[in-house]
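User: Let's play a game. I give you a shape written as tokens, and you guess the letters that built it. Ready? Here's round one.
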């Protein structure tokens, strides 16, 4: 079909016309490089109003380069995430946010942080069990938790998700991908993958591949390809141990949800082809 047909695809943003709207949208399109199509009438079918979701991101006292790169990407695309520290998660009112993002970090580091006595008391410890309980209540009440790579292990534990990190027990002799582009197959009809192609590359650096233990509770948004996985770089064991595993999953939790991205979709602000996975997850919270 033509551009008019594509303007009706799932996940397309519709902007109501009004005084000055067209000029403003066209100016933004030219500045940001996205296509705009003027429709002669309001499309038929389901249209869901959205609002700008209220976004926060966890910042540990341990330091996290991936968190810094993510903040850079957010600011580059007009997001203004608030910062959550351990104390905020443990005792704060999380209801003021719709989405909380945890970037790549081990579950152990998120939970425990710096050891007692290793530095001043204010910077010791992690989220701890109080933070886990508070976060879980927030998700169950409608929050969206988005995790990248290692932080997905934390989400699985914290929310008791029907998801297993299937790569966790593998040795480097069995599976070793120290930084390569791996082919993934995407379901573009899923809201987390709206606007994406059915096949793309994911930057994989000793990342995660998931299996689902209860398919009635979890949705697979993207999988690592069944064969011909390597698009760039090198790997050991991908065809045997990674092929077909889930790469991105969404799990409803109460009235909220967790979106687990098994790799870093924003690695050092470079793989823009997978930005939509977390942008969609964030904007999806604005529909509720």
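Assistant: Ready! My guess for every position:
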């Amino acid at each position: 079909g033509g551009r008019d047909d594509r303007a009706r695809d799932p996940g397309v943003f519709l902007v109501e016309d009004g005084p000055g709207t067209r000029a403003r949208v066209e100016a933004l399109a030219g500045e940001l490089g996205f296509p705009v199509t003027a429709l002669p009438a309001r499309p038929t079918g389901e249209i869901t109003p959205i609002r700008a979701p209220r976004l926060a991101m966890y910042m540990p006292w341990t330091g996290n380069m991936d968190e810094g790169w993510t903040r850079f990407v957010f600011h580059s695309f007009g997001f203004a995430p608030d910062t959550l520290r351990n104390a905020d998660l443990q005792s704060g009112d999380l209801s003021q946010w719709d989405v909380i993002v945890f970037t790549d970090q081990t579950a152990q580091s998120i939970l425990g942080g710096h050891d007692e006595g290793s530095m001043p008391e204010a910077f010791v410890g992690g989220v701890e069990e109080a933070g886990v309980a508070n976060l879980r209540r927030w998700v169950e009440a409608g929050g969206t938790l988005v995790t990248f790579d290692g932080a997905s292990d934390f989400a699985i534990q914290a929310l008791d998700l029907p998801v297993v990190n299937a790569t966790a027990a593998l040795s480097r002799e069995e599976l070793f991908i120290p930084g390569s582009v791996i082919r993934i197959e995407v379901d573009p009809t899923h809201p987390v993958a709206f606007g994406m192609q059915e096949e793309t590359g994911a930057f994989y650096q000793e990342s995660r591949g998931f299996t689902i233990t209860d398919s009635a509770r979890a949705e697979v948004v993207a999988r690592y390809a069944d064969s011909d996985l390597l698009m760039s770089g090198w790997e050991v064991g991908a065809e045997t141990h990674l092929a077909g595993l889930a790469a991105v999953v969404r799990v409803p939790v109460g009235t909220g949800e967790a979106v687990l991205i098994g790799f870093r979709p924003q690695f050092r602000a470079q793989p823009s082809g997978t930005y939509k996975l977390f942008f969609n997850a964030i904007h999806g919270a604005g529909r509720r």
